[in-house]
Amino acid sequence: MQDEPLFALNSYHIALAVIGLTVIAARWLPRLVSNREPASAPLMILFGAAATLVIPGLPTVPDPRQAPLPWELVSELTVIVALFGTGMRIDGLRPWRRWMPTVRMLAIAMPLTILAIALLGVGLAGLTLAGAILLGAVLAPTDPVLAADVQVGPPQEGGEHPVRFTLTTEAGLNDGLAFPFVYLGLIVAVEGANPGAWAVEWLLRDVVYRIVLGVAMGWLGGRALGYILFSVPKDAALAETSSGIIALAGVLLCYGSTELIEGYGFIAVAVMGLTLRRIETEHHFHRRLHDFSDSIEHALTAVLLHCAGQRDAAAVRGPEVG
């Protein structure tokens, strides 16, 4: 029998090594020219694309147009963890006037941005009205993952500048609050631009009911999780352990149950983070939980960005590598 080669180049192992190398390089190389937190997201995309073009034998990343489910699931999980972590960062909610810039950004600036994008989409790009509204709803919210560098610091760090506070709270809530406009675009696509036929139902169901339910479920989920973590059993509380997995499980439970009853899960997990942070505010578990969720968020984001760059490069090279 012919001997097998000593070093078999398995494509799966090559892919793992390349992902590790590109993530390390994207986080480390900017440190050679600046001591600030690096903007590593574009570098991960570029390095992922370069690896696909230069290194033969890498496994093909599924095309999101042909196989969207893996991309959707990983992206959704990343955003869920990021929104919960965003809520956990806020040390103090009061005085309530601190929230006025956030309210203006969410209630005025974001709808106006969606309107402007929709008008430009119809007038300049030739999109349908429904498609233009959906485009506006997708582009208007701030990305809570990539915007983390301009938000407030971890729990118990203090010094929450008003601008950073506004950016953090706005980023935590705008993804969920953009969903009414997503549903508006879908309704217009089906029913047409005839507000008399659907406006009341849209306002009551997609705006009022789903937002209120998301807030309520997030508050209840945060209170229930805080009770489990800090109160029962009092002499052996889970918060005294080093594991944050119970909190992550609670986030998934809160998100999934909210979506099951037609609420906005993205709002629920952000409110859950805000609520849990109000319980035992000085407990060291809050910082540990934030760091745990932050690590998961960064890991998932890194994989997504690398794969996005690899997918783009594969599209450039043509169907023979796809």
Question: Can you describe what's shown?
Answer:
The chain is mainly α. The protein folds into two domains: 13-55, no CATH class; 81-304, no CATH class. It is 67% helix and 0% strand. It has helices at 11-28, 40-54, 68-89, 100-123, 129-139, 162-177, 179-191, 195-230, 245-260, 265-277, 285-317. α3 packs antiparallel against α11 and α8 packs parallel to α10. The protein is globular. The chain starts with 10 loop residues before the first helix and ends in a 5-residue tail after the last helix.
Poorly predicted tracts of residues: none
Number of domains: 2
Please compute the radius of gyration using only Cα atoms.
Answer: 22 Å
- Secondary-structure element order, as H and E? HHHHHHHHHHH
> Helix/strand-derived class?
mainly alpha
How many beta-strand runs? Answer: 0
Helix content: 55-70%
Shape, please?
A: globular
Distance between the termini: 35 Å
Main sheet record: none
Tally of helical runs = 11
